Amino acid sequence: MTARDGSARVRPARPTARPARPAARRTGPRRPSGPAPVTPVDGLVLGDPPLLGRVVGVLLVLAGVTGALGLFPTYLVVGGTALSPSADAAGLLAGLLAPVAAVAVGGGLAAGRVPRFGLAFAGIGGGPALGLLLIELYRASTSTVRPGIEVIAGQRVLTSAVDVRAGWVLGAVALALTVLAGVLAVAAWGRTVMDDAGALDPARPALAGAAALLGVLAVLCLVLPAADLPDRIVTDPTTGLQVVVEQEGPQGLFERPGLALLGGLLLAGAVVLGSVLAPSLRPRLATVGGLLAIAVVVLSAGLAGLRDAVVSGDLEWTLPGAGLLLAGLGHVALTVLAWRLRRAPVRDPSAAGG
């Protein structure tokens, strides 16, 4: 193109196409391809288990194995009668409950899994074991000072002469190991780091009330024999009158003197105290362990009373015996409830995409 002054003006060429703009990118977080991870319900926090806690687990395993082995040899020879807890299937079932529980819980504690669960089981179970140990010492040593009727391994015997056998020794060693494990568990409790988010906290008051009632019921039933001799009805041949004659049955928990009386008091107090204390333990799994320890003690006693009534033809199952078995089953129900009573799993919102 020519300008007015005769100079040539060059017009720049138009671009044929506009340059492509870069596509906008999203700056937000990417949406995960898979489902969002699930946060643990309890928010369980676990630290390294202390060495003392593992020692407690080993002691529980040893106590369980020793107690199970003690069921098979002769327990005592009372008045010339050899007694063995495993003479029948019912006695073997009642005797194996505590050893199996000790081996299962102690094995997990020795491996370092959920340590306060095992420590609570050992700490609360050590109290009743001490009471039972004192009763066993009385039965093997000083029960002949004041002979009385006893029901041992389903047989009614008079403690006029008592000889100790291998079954009693193994059972006493198992109880002593359980007591030692309980003492060390109390010492290791404060050194163990384990807590949760408090999923059980709203239900703890109701759980504590129910456990306390069951503990008191268990003690009231422990005081009286679980299997006893029925009263006899005797007819006078001259007058024809019928008279009820009370037969001397087995002694109650607080009717024995000395070590047995002290052991009975310790057993009753430990059952009530353990029932009250267990629901207050943290975390939730510690409550489960404490309730499990009381459930094993009470249920073992209830099954032993039922075994005595079934095996012996002279004894009858009493109302306290039935109540003791029901108290044991109630503690088992509370243990399962404390284990299952938790909120539904929640998803981690920070892991979800926006």
From TrEMBL:
Residues covered by region (Disordered): 1-40
Coiled coil: none
Organism superkingdom: Bacteria
Stretches with biased composition (Low complexity): 9-22
Transmembrane regions listed in the UniProt entry: 55-78, 90-110, 117-138, 168-194, 206-227, 259-278, 285-305, 317-339
Residues spanning the signal sequence: none
UniProt keyword terms in alphabetical order: Membrane, Transmembrane, Transmembrane helix
Protein name: Uncharacterized protein
